[in-house]
Structure formats: structure tokens, C-alpha cells
């Protein structure tokens, strides 16, 4: 049997021979035998269990440490009698919330393959035992003869052996919306993409016109759909840059915390403290150092970004994608419907020896006719123009519909374009139609007969060459003159060179008694004109691509359309400026991965691509170090969407398969929406950076307090009696910091100029130089102020017998001082580099509310009896508050000084 990709190169007779079957199809016994050999015509996949997905949420180094801390706290409560059940409860609550959020948000890749399965036909008509039978499509085998008619879904890959006026909608497979005309002629060219295999009908596509017979050459995973399903199974979901950074950051924190915790324990023992005390101090250190709220905080930041994107019509399906767009370096976009309107539009009309430009985009009947740079009013002076447009309007089966969503076309998009161009001059009524000769691919024209007051009129539209063959003259200045065939064909070629689809219009006046049209009536026609149409670029896409260039993002067009059309649209959009090369699917099939790797950074337009080509382009861009966003709407796009750093599916025209394989869905199918989402993604990263730089110093400062207390305990007796902070204090500070302060911080409005700089380096780590310097600075300030307050108010407790109440009061004061340092820090943390004096302290009302809530809670913890019991605090003298509140100043001014010095250093460097 020949290789499956070569079936289109064989004649129908050769295919019959290769499959050992006749024109009457298989017998029932032959079909049964082949079913045993080839198996059922259905896609198989293995679904991941819910339990496995749930348990995978615990696969996080920080979660491991939190669970270990909860276990140790429980052990201390049971063995040593230290009551730490409150701490255990809070830690487990954080773990459970984070696990549930991750489980709910995780995308289910297997549903994409399940959606593919649903696109397969359920039943089909075949020839079995020489008779027509309707059978379940899953029982089809290679060699079966399938009968197709308009409206059928193709049940398997077929080599067509008979067609009559056949056209198929292959949009689910190729992404191109215009129906493809089919025939039975073998094609000698090798390595053709599915869109160019005109003698094949593919599983999952639809018959829009005509009838056919075809022999099954591939079923199940051997079909084009099956190849995509196989690619989907083999393609692993890409780990986003943010996930990589967080994983690296988590590993760094876990290793650092474990090493320092062990060191803390060893120092405690070396300094002569009991193992129990040293162990408790080490547990306190670990609890202080672990950013328990970082995982849910990241989730909240991404969820807020996803919500903002949804308001801008970009629906995020997998939360990490909300940030990934922010570091995207290249966007691989479909052409049809994303960069263009997916609405064929007449842009040029040639008639009366004049070349008119037509403005307006899409199906909305608004636009003007421009001649020589001047707008014209199509009246008596331009009657031939009106007649040309009327011919396209009357010789037409499409309908223009207006609903709440705007204008739509019911029928062929090409005919829809003719309806709209006529409507732009006010033509909205057709003369009564008496007869029609439908378009057939063999004839290459359509003709209609219409009733008139004095006589009837035949209108014809079709390929310019065919229409001219039927014409004797042409209408010039409202009179019939000799036909200028060469001039018309030259103009048609010129339009074709601009990737326009060109149709010729003609008419013929006949007697009123003639009520039917025959082939012989189509002689001696009068040529009217040409209409050239294209699916034009979206105006907002042109602007969005300009923004991408400014933001350092390269845009690549990958389309199933022809190279000439792709190049013309790319030129209008501003894609690949300075590049002449367009790579086609045929060329890609002959290239190795290494060859594609060498050129992928120099080619911005790809045409007539197959699914595996789009996947290869994406993979090689990633090998080049790019963070690739890929758009798609068809089944063919699913593997590339899954492999991309962020897959973007179309919400309106997209198949369920593409949506399930994607990370984000565009509700309006508009490329400009991607650029809006990029801005939100960059804002999400800024928020994450602010949140990390604000939250981690809390852990750092408290960890230094504990570690410092252990180290200095031999020299300062107070630290040997009690640590400055209890574990419950540390957990509360971490929780309150995230809820009351960090959450409002990430509500900060977007900074200006987010799209005016290049994407950040995807290799840049969260724990970079700025991180260590800023976190170290604030942590030291917090530690120093905490030591100062605890020592100042706690030392008198050791004069004479140990005053337990005084020590608890001193711990409470240290607890409050840590909060006040952080309150000072939040006012300057609103921007990583800009001084707090450059923006109003009242511009973020969320922060002011968060500070108020923090202070209320701290006062309740200090003075409300039942909260004193829970948090192990005690009310202290009111005069202590003055020194505690002064902690606000170093938390604010030391960071402001750091920003000032960085700014001065930056100026000197420049």
C-alpha cells in the first residue's frame, strides 16, 4: 500500500488497485475482515484521573516544607507540651487553600483530544455488497466506498473518485474559511499540505455543495485528524517562564531555609541550650523564613490579571498565562479572522475604463468609491459602475443580515462581498428572479435571469477569462463598444498580483417572453466590469502590530492561505518589513529541524502550512530562546497551541479542540486584544515583583530576629529566656501582611509606558541582585528595630526573678514594631524604582484601607482578652507606643535612600 501522504498523487484507478477493491465497494465479509486488521475508526485517549491531578498540586517544594513545619509543630505540642495547635491550623489552612485553587485552575489537556473525538462523524452512507447502506462511521475501513452530499460531515480520509460541483468547508482542519472546490484529478506535486490536496476529502470537514464518491484511504489515527490527536498526545504542555522562575525560587528558598534552620539548631546546642529550646527556636526560624502566603499570593495576582484581561476580551484559561504574555518575544498569528476581518470585501472595481478604489472594511455597508484620489457619487456619470455592482448583487445567492452583533452574511463569503459593495451605492432590491444556472467549478460562472418592465435581463458573474469568452462587447460611457479583452485581462492580472480574488460581470438584454436561461443564451454578452476582493487587514491589527514593534515583540504570520495572499496582507500589516522570503508548507516539508532553526529568525511569513509545520516553527523559535505566543482557531492549530509558551484560541470562530488546547481565548478574535493582554501581563509581572519585594522582607526580618536571638543568647540573657517573637506572631504577621497590605499593593494602577520597552529577559530570576539588596536592606532594618524594642522593654524583666508578664509585653511590643516597620515600607514599595514622593500617598485607597484594618487588628490582638490568649500577647504601657510607631521611619526612609542612590548611579552609568 502506498504511503498515506501520497494518495493524492495516484489516480482513482490506481487507488482501487492498491486497496484491492472495485467501484462497487467492499462486501460485508471483506469489511469485517478489514475491521479486524485496522480496528475501529475512532480516536483513543487515556484520561488522567481526578485524584492524580489533585495530588499533583502538592508537588511544590514550599508545600513540602509547610507540611513538615505543621508536622513538627504537632510533634512539639504532643511530645514537649508546647501548645502550637493554632500554628498547625493556620499552616494547614494555607496548604489546603493553595491546593484547591491550583486544582480548580489547572487546564485539562485531555479534553482537547476528547473534543476531537466529538468532531468525528457518527454515521455515513457506504456501498456494501453493491448497495447503499447507512452504517456507524466507526465501522469504516480502508477500501470502503463512501457517498457524500451537501451537508454531510466527512467520516474518514477519502480519495475522491467521482465529484459533481463539490466544495468542502475545511476550516476545522486548515483554518481557512472559504470552501474549497474538489475534483478527482491526481496531483503530481509532493509534500502538499491538506489545503492543496483537491482530490482528497478529510475526516471532520463538511461538504457545502455538490455530491461525491470517495474511497476510504485512512481511518482513526491514520487520518489528518488522527495525526493531530497523536501530536496532541506527544506534545507536552510547556512550563511557562513564571512557573520556571517560581520553581527555581522555591528550590532556592527551601535549600536556604533548611540549611539555615539546621545551622540555627546546631548553634543553639553549641551555645549550651537544651535540645528542646534549640529545636523550638529552629522551628520558629523555619516558620518565620517560609513565605507561606507566596503561592496563594501569586495565584491572586494572576487571577486579578486574568480578570483585567477578561474585561478586555481575553479570557485566560490557565492562570500562569496571565503573566506569560508579559515576557512574550514573538507572536505567531493566524491570518484569517485574527489579523483580518474574515469578511471578504470588495476593494477595487474596474469598469468603463476606470479603476475605482472602494473604502470600508467587512460586511457593514458603509464606504466610498474613490477615483483618482477623489470621492465620487455613483450617479448618472458613473452609471456603468452602478450596473457592474448591480450585476454582482443580482447574480447572487447570499443574504446580508443585521442583528445585535452587527452585519453578517448568510451564504458564500465571496458573494457576500458583492452584496455589500452594491449596498454601498444604495442597491438593496433585486428584480424578480425567473431562472438560475448555479455556479459549477467546471463552468466557472453563474447566471441568473431577472424580470424587467420592458424586457428581461441575464446577469453573469465568474472568472474573468470565462466571462470574456462569452462577451462580444463592453459597456463604455453607457454605450456598447468593441471588447478590450487584453486590457481587461491585464487589469485582472494586476488585481491578482495584489492577492485580490477577481470576478468578471456581464449582462444581456433578452425579450420579456423569455423566462428560462440556457447555455446558448449566454453568447453575445456585454462585459460590465471586474470586482476585486480580499479579506482585508483589521485596522486595529495594523495599529497593534506597530505597538508590538515598539514593545520589542516580533509578529509572525502563519496561514493556510496562498503565499501571494499572505505576502500582500503581511505588507499591509507591516509584518516582515525588509523581508522578501515567504516559506510555504511544501518548502517546510523538505526542511530538517536544523535547517528551519537557521532561518526561523529571518522569516516572518509562512503560507500553506500543515499542522506539523506550525508545531515545528513554534518549537524552533523556542529553541532560539523566544517566549512564543501562538494563535489558532482550527483543529490543525491544537498541537502548536499546546506546545507554545502561551496558546491563544479564537472565541468566535475557534473549534472546541483549539480552545481546550489553549491557555487563553480571545472573545472577539481580534489580534489587537492580544496586545492589550500583553500590557496586562507586563502589569502582572510588575505586581508580582512588588509583592515579592514587599513580602519576603517580612520573612527575612523575622528569621533574622530568631536567628540573631539564638546567636546572641549567650551574651544577652533575655534571648535565652524567650525569643523576640512566638511562632503564632510570625504566622500572623505573614498572613496579615499578605491580606491587608500586599493585596492592596497589587491593586496599584498600571504604570505608564509598559509597552514602550523590550520584553524582560525570560532568563532573569526572581531572586536577582535587586531582590537580594532590597530584601536584605528591609530585613536588617526590621530585625534591628525588633531587637531594639524587645531588648529595651524586655531587659527589666530579668532584674530579680523573671517577670513572665513583662517578657510577654516585650514580645508583644516587638511584634507590633515589626508591623510598623512594614507599614513604613509599604508607602515606598508602591513602585520598585520611583520615589514615593513622585506620586500621591492617597492615590491607592486600597492601601489606606489595608493599613487601617492592620492597625485595628493589631490593637485588638494587644487589648482584647480572648485574642491575647490566642496570640499569646499582653497589653503594655501606653507610653511604649511612641517608640514602636517610630519604626515607620526607618522602614520608609532607608528604602527611599536606596532608590535615590540607584538613580544617581544609573545617571553616572549613562
Which tags fit this structure?
single chain, 910 residues, alpha+beta, eleven-stranded mixed sheet, eight-stranded mixed sheet, 28 strands, elongated, disordered N terminus
Give a written overview of the molecule.
Helix 9 packs antiparallel against helix 10 (275-289), helix 17 runs parallel beside helix 24 (671-712) and helix 28 (804-828) packs parallel to helix 32 (888-909). The strands form 4 sheets. Strands 10, 11, 12, 13, 16, 17, 18, 19, 20, 21 and 22 form an 11-stranded mixed beta sheet that branches. Strands 8-28-27-26-9-23-25-24 form an 8-stranded mixed beta sheet, with helices on both faces. By secondary structure, it is α+β, with helices and mostly antiparallel strands. Helix content is 47%, strand content 17%.
Amino acid at each position: 500500500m502506498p504511503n498515506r501522504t501520497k494518495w493524492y498523487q495516484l489516480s482513482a484507478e490506481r487507488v482501487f488497485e492498491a486497496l484491492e477493491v472495485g467501484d462497487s465497494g467492499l462486501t460485508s465479509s471483506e469489511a469485517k475482515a478489514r475491521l479486524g486488521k485496522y480496528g475501529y475508526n475512532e480516536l483513543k485517549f487515556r484520561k488522567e484521573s481526578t485524584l492524580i491531578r489533585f495530588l499533583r498540586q502538592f508537588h511544590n517544594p514550599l508545600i513540602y516544607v509547610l507540611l513538615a513545619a505543621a508536622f513538627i509543630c504537632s510533634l512539639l505540642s504532643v511530645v514537649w507540651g508546647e501548645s502550637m495547635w493554632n500554628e498547625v491550623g493556620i499552616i494547614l489552612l494555607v496548604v489546603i487553600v493553595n491546593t484547591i485553587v491550583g486544582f480548580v485552575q489547572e487546564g485539562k489537556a485531555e479534553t482537547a483530544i476528547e473534543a476531537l473525538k466529538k468532531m468525528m462523524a457518527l454515521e455515513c452512507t457506504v456501498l456494501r455488497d453493491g448497495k447503499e447502506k447507512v452504517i456507524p462511521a466507526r465501522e469504516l475501513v480502508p477500501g470502503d466506498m463512501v457517498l457524500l452530499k451537501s451537508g454531510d460531515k466527512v467520516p474518514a480520509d477519502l480519495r475522491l473518485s467521482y465529484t459533481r460541483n463539490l466544495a468542502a468547508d475545511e476550516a476545522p482542519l486548515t483554518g481557512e474559511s472559504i470552501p474549497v472546490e474538489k475534483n478527482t484529478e491526481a496531483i503530481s506535486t509532493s509534500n502538499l499540505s491538506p489545503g492543496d490536496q483537491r482530490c482528497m476529502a478529510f475526516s471532520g470537514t463538511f461538504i457545502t455543495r455538490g455530491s461525491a464518491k470517495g474511497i476510504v484511504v485512512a481511518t482513526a489515527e491514520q487520518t489528518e485528524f488522527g495525526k493531530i490527536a497523536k501530536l496532541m498526545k506527544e506534545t507536552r504542555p510547556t512550563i511557562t517562564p513564571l512557573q520556571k522562575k517560581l520553581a527555581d525560587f522555591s528550590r532556592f528558598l527551601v535549600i536556604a531555609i533548611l540549611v539555615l534552620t539546621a545551622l540555627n539548631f546546631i548553634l543553639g546546642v553549641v551555645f549550651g541550650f537544651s535540645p528542646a529550646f534549640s529545636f523550638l527556636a529552629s522551628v520558629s526560624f523555619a516558620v518565620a523564613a517560609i513565605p507561606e502566603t507566596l503561592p496563594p499570593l501569586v495565584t491572586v495576582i494572576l487571577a486579578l490579571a486574568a480578570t483585567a484581561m477578561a474585561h478586555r476580551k481575553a479570557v485566560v484559561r490557565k492562570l500562569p498565562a496571565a503573566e506569560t504574555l508579559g515576557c512574550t518575544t514573538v507572536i505567531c498569528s493566524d491570518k484569517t479572522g485574527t489579523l483580518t476581518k474574515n469578511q471578504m470585501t470588495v476593494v477595487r472595481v474596474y469598469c468603463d475604463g476606470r479603476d475605482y478604489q472602494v473604502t470600508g472594511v467587512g460586511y457593514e455597508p458603509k464606504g466610498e468609491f474613490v477615483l483618482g484620489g477623489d470621492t465620487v457619487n455613483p450617479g448618472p456619470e458613473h452609471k456603468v459602475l452602478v450596473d457592474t455592482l448591480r450585476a454582482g448583487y443580482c447574480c447572487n445567492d447570499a443574504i446580508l443580515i443585521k442583528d445585535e452583533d452587527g452585519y453578517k452574511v448568510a451564504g458564500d463569503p465571496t458573494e457576500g462581498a458583492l452584496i455589500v459593495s452594491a449596498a454601498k451605492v444604495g442597491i438593496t432590491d433585486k428584480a424578480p428572479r425567473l431562472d438560475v444556472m448555479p455556479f459549477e467549478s467546471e463552468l466557472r460562472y453563474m447566471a441568473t435571469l431577472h424580470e424587467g418592465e420592458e424586457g428581461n435581463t441575464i446577469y453573469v458573474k465568474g472568472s474573468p477569462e470565462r466571462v470574456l469568452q462569452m462577451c462580444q462587447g463592453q459597456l463604455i460611457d453607457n454605450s456598447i463598444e468593441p471588447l478590450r479583452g487584453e486590457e481587461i485581462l491585464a487589469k485582472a492580472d494586476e488585481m491578482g498580483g495584489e492577492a485580490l480574488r477577481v470576478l468578471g460581470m456581464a449582462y444581456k438584454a433578452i425579450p420579456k417572453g423569455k423566462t428560462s436561461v440556457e447555455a446558448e443564451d449566454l453568447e453575445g454578452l456585454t462585459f460590465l466590469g471586474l470586482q476585486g476582493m480580499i479579506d482585508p487587514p483589521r485596522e486595529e491589527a495594523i495599529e497593534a502590530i506597530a505597538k508590538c514593534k515598539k514593545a520589542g515583540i516580533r509578529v509572525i504570520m502563519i496561514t493556510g492561505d496562498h503565499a501571494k495572499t499572505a505576502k500582500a496582507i503581511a505588507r499591509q500589516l507591516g509584518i516582515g518589513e525588509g523581508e522578501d522570503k515567504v516559506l510555504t508548507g511544501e518548502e517546510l516539508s523538505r526542511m530538517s529541524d536544523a535547517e528551519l532553526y537557521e532561518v526561523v529568525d529571518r522569516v516572518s511569513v509562512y503560507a500553506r502550512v500543515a499542522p506539523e509545520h506550525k508545531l515545528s516553527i513554534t518549537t524552533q523559535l523556542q529553541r532560539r530562546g523566544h517566549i512564543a505566543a501562538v494563535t489558532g482557531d482550527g483543529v490543525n492549530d491544537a498541537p502548536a497551541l499546546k506546545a507554545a509558551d502561551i496558546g491563544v484560541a479564537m472565541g468566535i470562530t475557534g473549534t472546541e479542540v483549539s480552545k481546550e488546547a489553549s491557555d487563553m481565548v480571545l472573545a472577539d478574535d481580534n489580534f489587537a486584544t492580544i496586545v492589550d493582554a500583553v500590557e496586562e501581563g507586563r502589569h502582572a509581572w510588575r505586581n508580582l515583583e512588588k509583592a515579592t519585594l514587599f513580602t519576603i522582607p517580612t520573612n527575612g526580618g523575622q528569621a533574622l530576629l530568631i536567628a540573631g536571638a539564638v546567636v546572641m543568647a549567650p551574651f544577652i540573657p533575655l534571648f535565652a529566656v524567650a525569643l523576640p517573637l512566638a511562632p503564632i506572631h510570625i504566622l500572623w504577621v505573614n498572613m496579615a501582611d499578605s491580606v491587608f497590605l500586599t493585596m492592596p499593593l497589587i491593586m496599584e494602577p498600571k504604570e505608564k509606558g509598559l509597552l514602550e520597552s523590550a520584553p524582560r529577559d525570560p532568563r532573569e530570576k526572581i531572586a536577582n541582585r535587586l531582590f537580594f539588596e532590597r530584601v536584605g536592606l528591609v530585613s536588617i532594618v526590621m530585625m534591628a528595630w525588633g531587637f531594639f524594642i524587645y531588648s529595651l522593654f524586655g531587659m527589666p524583666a530579668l532584674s530579680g526573678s523573671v517577670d513572665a508578664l513583662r517578657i510577654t509585653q516585650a514580645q508583644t511590643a516587638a511584634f507590633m514594631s515589626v508591623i510598623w516597620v512594614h507599614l513604613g515600607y509599604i508607602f515606598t514599595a508602591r513602585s520598585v524604582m520611583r520615589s514615593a514622593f513622585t506620586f500621591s500617598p492617597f492615590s491607592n485607597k486600597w492601601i489606606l484601607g489595608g493599613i487601617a484594618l492592620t492597625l485595628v487588628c493589631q490593637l485588638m490582638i494587644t487589648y482584647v482578652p480572648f485574642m491575647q490568649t490566642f496570640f499569646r500577647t499582653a497589653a503594655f504601657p501606653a507610653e511604649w507606643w511612641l517608640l514602636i510607631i517610630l519604626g515607620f521611619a526607618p522602614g520608609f526612609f532607608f528604602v527611599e535612600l536606596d532608590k535615590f542612590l540607584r538613580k544617581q548611579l544609573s545617571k553616572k552609568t549613562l
